Amino acid sequence: MKPWILGLTGGIGSGKSAVAQCFIERGVHLVDADHAARWVVEPGRPALAKIVEHFGEQVLQADGQLDRTALRQRVFADPAERRWLEALLHPLIGVEISQYLARAESPYAILVSPLLIESGQHRMTQRVLLVDAPEQLQIERTMVRDQSSSEQVEAILKAQASREERLRHAHDVLSNDRDLGWLQNEVERLHHFYLTLKGGQA
């Protein structure tokens, strides 16, 4: 039987990675949309050639890898360029994710994506688990992790789907505001529940 797909999302600093790791330890097949986004632009892949053709050699590093910072500066400054890039990459990332999920041997598989809702990737899933945390805690965690200022973190929070929007799409919400032991128990509980589901629906 084909595994059903659980979408795992949450704002920056909510603890998505810790939750994802807990599921991996339970043998759940997991693909990370951010990794897929990196794979599609590796040297030798068609997407990279199209990006260079469109933006010029300035978006390449000396070793032929994509210079993400240079590309990001180009598309952030120009919404039309950003749309062009998204139109090229989103379908390719979708294919990459689907192929990877299709190899899953666990009863359900997980797609982790910070932009699950915004990118429309939630349409590839049968159920959505939102990792939620109080905004102040998200800001503190991210500042520690990325050595960034609270202004930088708040700017990222604003760019991501609003919390209300994410909660509206979520079937399950895991409030990650306690310690790791508690988190692991919650994942264990959800995992057992997910194993009883057919096609992701109770």
From TrEMBL:
One of the GO biological process terms: coenzyme A biosynthetic process
Top-level taxon of the source organism: Bacteria
Compartments, as annotated in UniProt: Cytoplasm
EC number: 2.7.1.24
Binding-site list for ATP: 13-18
Principal location class: cytoplasm
Record's keyword terms, sorted: ATP-binding, Coenzyme A biosynthesis, Cytoplasm, Kinase, Nucleotide-binding, Transferase
InterPro entries according to UniProt: Depp_CoAkinase, P-loop_NTPase
Main EC class the enzyme belongs to: transferase
GO molecular function (one): ATP binding
Tagged with keyword DNA repair: no
Function: Catalyzes the phosphorylation of the 3'-hydroxyl group of dephosphocoenzyme A to form coenzyme A.
Similarity section: Belongs to the CoaE family.
Protein name, as recorded: Dephospho-CoA kinase
Organism name: Pseudomonas xionganensis
Lineage, highest ranks first: Bacteria, Pseudomonadati, Pseudomonadota, Gammaproteobacteria, Pseudomonadales
